[in-house]
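Hey, does this match?
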Amino acid sequence: MAKVEIYTTPTCPYCIAAKTLLKGKGVAYEETDVSRDPDLRVAMTQRAGGRRSVPQIFIDGQHVGGSDDIHLLDRQGKLDALLGLAA
């Protein structure tokens, strides 16, 4: 199974949607709340190629984008393979 990291804030509906998708697939993830620590948000932004919005999602260290991006990957049938779920 892939290592999934997600940067979030508590009230972000897109964060909730992304986490719901991952939970629905039975995928564990490491969540980092960037709402109260400006240094964490700066680190996330640098790691995400300048993207400041949340969520920002990484699978095995590869930036895959935000909620819309992983939902698109799922609709395209590509997300399971990235997550290590495909046979």
